Every structure is written in structure tokens, then in C-alpha cells.
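Work Package 3 (structural annotation) set out to generate three-dimensional models for the target panel prioritized at the project kickoff. During this period the team completed the workflow that converts sequence records into C-alpha cells, so that structures can be stored uniformly alongside our sequence database. As a representative example, we reproduce one entry of 167 residues exactly as it appears in the project archive.
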Amino acid sequence: MACLHRGGTPCKESDAMPPAPHIRQLTADDAVLFGQLVDLFHLVFENDHPTTMPISSLRDLLALPHFVAFGVFVDEQLVGGCTAYILPSYTKPHPELFVYDFAIHPDYQRRRLGSLLMQSLFTFCSYQHIPLIFVMAHAEDTHAVEFYRANGAVLEDVVNAIFALPS
């Protein structure tokens, strides 16, 4: 069936609906894709000294039961994703999910892909019986803070202490 606008004029190819994005959890077989996601994190977070682990190390990380990574794909191209750790609790009978990195490529931001990714995390947690997700964002990163608030997060004032130990 041909595409027609209201009034019967034919649609141009450029009028076609863009492909629907899809999100999926990465597996150990997706180590190369995971490497691309790590590169995307470096780009989005403007990391001055990016390093990426060897593919074999990324594969091993993806195989761990307490580590998860999700990719956001448009036209089969990786355009975003997140990594997270499932943390067992010694004070509650259920684990919690700590989102470590979360990013969408700048060319694909403001298209609701981040919100779709958050919804995928909510679904994953529901299936895994994980009732709490937490993520850190720099207070001065107002876009990230507002994104998390808009997606239902309750914000807390927390100080993040980092100890860089000598190697």
C-alpha cells in the first residue's frame, strides 16, 4: 500500500517514519559492541584520557551475573546504552541496581531514547525483583539531573568521596 498524505498526495521517501529504536541487554557475545559503547561513554563524558579494556576482558565482564549492559540501537547502529551492577544487600532481602554509566550519543539526544532506556531498566528490574535503582550525577550536570527527575527519580544531596590510591 502506497503512502499518501491527507488529500491524496504521495509521500516522499523522506516522509517515511524513522526506524523504531530498540534496546537490548548485551551478552558476552557482544564484547565488540560493548567496546563501542565504552567508546561512546568516553565521547559523551568528554574523557580526556580514554582507555578501553581488551575485548577478552569486556567479554568476561559481560559474563558476570552481577554486571549488566544495555545498548540502544537505531537502524542497527549503537547510539547509546548503560552499564549497571546488581548489588546484593545485607540490610534488605533484595538486591539493588547501581547504574554506573548512562549515555546517548549527542546526535541522538532529545529523542526520548534515554527515557526508553530507563523504561527498559525498570522492566529488567521488575523481572529480577530489584525494587531500587540508583545512579549518581554531578550536580552541575543539570541536563542529567533534570533527565533523572523527569523519569521519576527522587533526588538526594549526597557527597561522593573518591580515593585515588597509588598504583
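The helical segments are 31-44, 55-63, 113-128, 142-150.
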